[in-house]
Design brief:
Structural class: mainly alpha
Strand content: under 5%
Number of domains: 2
Shape: flat
Low-confidence stretches: none
Distance between the termini: 87 Å
Radius of gyration: 24 Å
Oligomer: single chain
Helix content: over 70%
Mean pLDDT: 77
Length: 118
């Protein structure tokens, strides 16, 4: 096997493992610690994150083995569509729009107060 194929496979495995660790960390901090076990120690959180990482990796492996390839392609396309739709909202945010609406409404209220009789 050529060396570049080995390196590509290793980098893909590393990327998948990093994603699993990220998902496990999100689960541990945002769900387990907040809702399931509020007084969890750092050691217990680390153990839960390790178990969650293994579960995510096994889920990904089962997905690759048992589901048709078209599902993977469709999910990849769906992820791209969702990213294209949510990226502008994340970058530009909705706060600027609501502030502009508030300013406009306040401006209209001032004019309405001047126009309406006392």
């Amino acid at each position: 096997m050529p060396a570049f194929l080995k390196e590509a496979g290793f980098s893909e495995a590393t990327s998948t493992q990093n994603s699993a660790i990220d998902a496990a960390s999100l689960f541990t901090r945002n769900l387990y610690r907040e809702y399931l076990h509020r007084n969890a120690s750092e050691n217990e959180q680390a153990n839960v994150a390790k178990c969650a990482s293994v579960a995510v990796n096994h889920g990904a492996l089962l997905f690759v083995i048992f589901l048709p390839m078209s599902y993977g392609v469709n999910l990849q396309l769906l992820g791209g569509v969702l990213l294209l739709q949510t990226f502008p909202a994340i970058v530009f945010g909705s706060e600027g729009q609501s502030e502009a609406k508030q300013r406009r409404c306040g401006h209209c209220d001032q004019h309405a107060a001047k126009i309406s009789p006392p």
